[in-house]
Every structure is written in structure tokens, then in C-alpha cells.
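From the shared-data thread, chain only:
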Amino acid sequence: GVQLEESGGGSVEAGGSLRLSCTAPRSAYVALTMGWFRQEPDQSRTPVAYITWSADRTYYSESVKGRFTLSRTSGQNTVDLQMDSLKPEDTATYYCAGSQGGAGSFARMSQGRIDYWGQGIQVTVSS
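Structure, as C-alpha cells:
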């Protein structure tokens, strides 16, 4: 199946910054809402941030609001997550996600109806 292409991540001390990038391959080139989820061992995957195709609406989880910034060029299937003021509790595997559905794609992602995933990328924040 189609897999989103992720890059970035790594290890950093608390208070530091990291950046994640994600691109949808041409085979998945429709108007996707795209964003990031994260998962800790033995925990469920939870949304971090996501943004519409036109970049006119963005969701952030309460735990990252004010520290993380999700950006996207309108009309392109590439998103970047700038993560600042990182905390040890941000440590997780981060997954890029994409939802189809045109104008309804943002709602689909909020409902956890994900059409495309990345392979996962590790972010580790040490105290």
C-alpha cells in the first residue's frame, strides 16, 4: 500500500527542538488533510497536530499547543512539524497520517479515519 515518507526526529535534551517532515507520494496525490500522531509503548496512537489541504484550519492537542507548529504550503502534500521546548513526555514514535475526503477530510482525521500512514519515526527527549 501507499506509505507516507517521513524524515527528521532523533534525540534531544529537554528544552531543545526537533523537526519532522512528511510527504505523500505521487500515488497518493489527492487533497489530503495531513498531520502527526504519536504512540508510546503499550499505549494507543493519539493525534498531535493536523492541517487541511488548504492550510486554513489546524488542530493541536492540548499537550503540544504553544510548543509545536505544524506548517504546510497550501495545495501541497508536504507538512512540517516544528517541535520546540521539548519535554521528556514528548518521547514517542511519531507517525505521519493522511486522510482523504476533500472538504470532509479534516473531520475524518478527527474521527481517526486515516487512509495513509508513515512508517513511524522516533523522538526521544532526555531530562
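The first helix runs from residue 105 to 110.
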